Cytidine deaminase (Nitrospirillum amazonense), 155 residues
Amino acid sequence: MSAPPPAPVPPHPVPTPASPALFTAAAAARLHAHAPYSRFLVGAALRTADGTVFVGANVENAAYPQGQCAEASAIGAMVAGGAKRIAEIVVIGAPADPNVDASGLCTPCGGCRQRLREFSAPDTLIHVAGPEGVRATFTMDQLLPFSFGPDNLSF
């Protein structure tokens, strides 16, 4: 009996230029984050196919599970604005203190990956950035391979 083939590994993400306006909108939203507990500020800006931009910031709460991620905030604004599809998103995260190491990637959490999946195509670009610029770009399929989404419920 032979061993099963290894699971496919997504290609390594590379920085891909995001629209300067989208990056600027995410950076501005990050500055409005409410993060008194973690002191880690996150902003997100997403663009729909018609070019409309929606932003969000992380909003922490003293009752920790009640907080909201920047991506979820931006998606909520998009849905409230009548849109249902993400064409591209920039997520910028870094500590509030510029003297703290911020070199790691601030990728969307598991819950936000699923939220993004609900409103994205497999090739939707997710740009992960720090205050200085985009650090890596993923497609939705790279960020959440073998995902469960609306198409799985199309019986």
